[in-house]
Design goal:
- The protein is mainly alpha-helical.
- It has 3 domains: 69 residues, no CATH class; 116 residues, P-loop containing nucleotide triphosphate hydrolases (Rossmann fold, 3-Layer(aba) Sandwich), CATH 3.40.50.300; 34 residues, no CATH class.
- 45% of the residues lie in helices and 10% in strands.
- It is built from 10 helices and 5 strands; from the N terminus they run E-E-H-H-E-H-H-H-E-H-E-H-H-H-H.
- The strands form 2 sheets. A 3-stranded parallel β-sheet has the order 3-4-5, with helices on both faces. A two-stranded antiparallel sheet has the order 1-2.
- Strand 4, helix 6 and strand 5 form a beta-alpha-beta unit.
- The radius of gyration is 19 Å and the shape is globular.
- It starts with a strand and ends in an 8-residue tail after the last helix.
Length: 233
């Protein structure tokens, strides 16, 4: 039940406790781990697994809500290769500069930015760079993010270790000092379970709506009758 304090390769502290995958649970470490960290450091970073539409959504709508946590900033991590892949570039061509496909694929990042901004928290986009990226690709992503009101930082941790993350750390600290967080979950506690599910589907995943099977509706009604209707989904 006690959080594990471990040391990274560069001698910084990290607390590992819980952390189930976001595709089967809430995708981040325990409330106890975060609250312990907050007693020990001025700045605490929680890694929410998978994409922001999954891990971050659950961190914000479930963990933060139930633990009374109010995040001051959100860091979205992207890569040039993933954005180009989303734009239709075959895997064996991802190391080649392709601004047209990057422009086509960056709509994926745009949706993640849009989703996170709905929570009222300042967003920082960091590009996890690799030596196969080009300067033109970096500048394209940077301009794209800044046009949407996001701070941008190039992360070179893959190549340089901790030294490569200094730019990102400075942007995070700048955001904490100069931008205000007005965090609020995307749906209220009192909303019914059926509408909570539909809200996530529409606002985060872009669905037009949700169609429920009779068995699913029956289960939802049973949960609400048992007093679970105010819980997050």
């Amino acid at each position: 039940l006690k959080p594990n304090l471990i040391q990274t390769l560069e001698h910084t502290g990290a607390i590992v406790h819980g952390g189930p995958f976001a595709n089967i649970a809430h995708g981040c470490n325990s409330v106890r781990a975060t609250k312990t960290a907050l007693k020990l450091a001025d700045v605490v970073v929680t890694e929410a697994g998978f994409g922001a539409d999954l891990g971050a959504e659950k961190f914000l709508d479930i963990k933060c809500r139930k633990a009374g946590l109010k995040p001051d900033a959100i860091v979205l991590v992207a890569t040039v290769s993933a954005l180009k892949y989303n734009g239709g570039v075959p895997k064996d061509q991802l190391k080649e500069e392709n601004l047209a496909s990057l422009e086509k694929g960056i709509v994926n990042l745009e949706k993640h930015i849009e989703n996170m901004m709905k929570y009222g928290v300042p967003v920082i986009v960091t590009l996890n760079s690799f030596i196969t990226d080009t300067e033109a690709e970096h500048q394209f992503v940077k301009a794209f993010c800044e046009e949407r009101g996001c701070e941008f930082a190039l992360s070179q941790v893959w190549e340089k270790g901790g030294e490569g993350g200094i730019e990102l750390a400075k942007k995070v600290l700048y955001t904490l000092e100069h931008k205000e967080s007005n965090f609020a979950p995307i749906y209220p506690d009192e909303m019914g379970l059926e509408n909570k599910i539909a809200t996530i589907a529409r606002e985060i995943y872009g669905a037009a709506g949700v169609t429920y099977a009779p068995a699913a509706l029956k289960a939802i009604r049973r949960f609400e009758e048992m007093g679970f209707g105010s819980l997050p989904v």
